[in-house]
Write a structure and sequence with these properties.
InterPro entries: RNMT_CmcI, SAM-dependent_MTases_sf. This protein is of the alpha/beta class. The protein contains six helices and nine strands, in the order H-E-E-H-E-H-E-E-H-E-H-E-H-E-E. It has a single domain, classed as Vaccinia Virus protein VP39 (Rossmann fold, 3-Layer(aba) Sandwich).
């Protein structure tokens, strides 16, 4: 069964539907697997975040998706950070952008300044996928995540998990290292319920 799931995962990932610009949210390209978007809306409804920090903007499609769900639940704002965002990004009253490296003190300072002590905070890491960069992001941003909320690491499927086997150490390896020394988070196994996710073991829930 797992071999079948992996082969289906590979076919979807390498298909034309996954090609840039072929999938859109409200007209903006979005490079997300639909089942992961469904998981995102479940998480947002459950957690009711006041602040979402998104590392990795690209074309802004996922930021727009997040704002759409926040609009439906009637609360929350998004700060989307990217060192080289694309032009013509979507606009929304709940959305702000920062052009900076996600691992810079400028970005971390901007994120902290958005947050009050009463806020529920969720963080999404979807920028540079090399292990060192993702692990640095994990260590920088995890203190911002509130208990019961999530630190989501995108594209843990690369480097042979099961796609892009030649990528080299990436998000999955960063998560594994992070969890060895951080007991504040667990992998939310419920987020594997659709059998295929582009973020396997990447939905980290803060438990303490």
């Amino acid at each position: 069964m797992s071999d079948y799931i992996d082969q289906t995962h590979l076919q979807i990932y390498n298909s034309n539907v996954w090609a840039y610009g072929n999938s859109k949210w409200l007209g903006y390209p979005i490079l997300k697997y639909p089942c992961d978007l469904f998981l995102y809306q479940e998480i947002l409804h459950e957690v009711q975040p006041d602040i979402i920090i998104e590392c990795g903007t690209f074309n802004g499609g996922s930021a727009m998706f997040l704002c759409s769900i926040l609009e439906l639940i009637g609360k929350g704002k998004v700060l989307s950070i990217d060192i080289d965002p694309q032009p013509n990004l979507p606009t929304h009253e709940r959305l702000s952008y920062l052009k900076a490296s996600s691992t810079s003190m400028q970005a971390l300072k901007a994120a902290r300044e958005m947050i009050t002590l009463e806020d529920t905070v969720l963080v999404i890491l979807d920028s540079d996928h090399r292990k060192h960069h993702v692990l640095t992001e994990l260590n920088l941003y995890y203190p911002l995540v509130t208990k019961g909320s999530y630190l989501i690491v995108e594209d843990t499927n690369i480097n042979g998990h099961p796609v892009s086997p030649d990528f080299g150490p990436g998000p999955m390896e960063a998560v594994e290292d992070f969890l060895q020394s951080n007991t504040n988070f667990i992998i939310d196994e419920e987020k594997h319920k659709f059998l295929i996710t582009f973020n396997p073991k990447g939905y980290l829930k803060r438990i303490k």
